[in-house]
Amino acid sequence: MADLLSDDEIEAQLPDDWTRDGDEIVRTYEFDDYLRGVNFAQMVGEIAESQFHHPEIIIRYEEVEIRLTSHEEGGITDQDVEMAELIESEHDA
Ligand SMILES: C[C@H](O)[C@H](O)[C@H]1CNC2=NC(N)=NC(=O)C2=N1
Fold first, then answer.
1. Ligand 1, residues 3, 71, 76, 87: which to mutate, most atoms within 8 A of Cβ?
2. pLDDT for 82
3. 7-13: long-range pairs with CB below 8 Å, 24+
4. What is the pTM of this model?
5. Domains of the chain
6. 48-78 exposure pattern, b = at least 16 Cβ within 10 A, e = fewer
7. Does ligand 1 lie within 6 Å of residue 36's CB atom?
8. Tens digit of pLDDT for each residue in 30-73?
9. Which of 64, 71, 91, 92 could tie 37 with a disulfide, CB 3.0–4.6 Å?
């Protein structure tokens, strides 16, 4: 079990363009068309499976919202930050 991060730790470790929303960290990615978003969601799902840490993925027209929290711990842990960083690195690839 990972430890819950403090408010200061969350603020310090949150990757650029991610925001905190209560017990979740959130980012919305924009795409030129719907299917690029769908493909991105698939890639996020593959990362989630590899890390066994699963975000909420909301697919909308030309945008995908990713919401991360650690359910078992009941808040934000370094697993969420690590997932956000992995997603960022894949998105920038
Ligand atoms: C039983 C429990 O659901 C599993 O251990 C994993 C699966 N994926 C998970 N994903 C997230 N975001 N939080 C969890 O606590 C979590 N737990």
1. 71
2. 97
3. 10/76, 10/81, 13/78, 13/81
4. 0.95
5. 7-92 (3.30.1360.20)
6. beeeebebebeeeeeebbbbbbbeebebbbe
7. no
8. 999 999 999 999 999 999 999 999 999 999 999 999 999 999 99
9. 64
HEC string for the chain:
CCCECCHHHHHHHCCCCCEEECCEEEEEEECCCHHHHHHHHHHHHHHHHHHCCCCEEEEECCEEEEEECECCCCECEHHHHHHHHHHHHHHHC
Can you tell me the ipTM of this complex? 0.91
pLDDT at 1 over 80: no
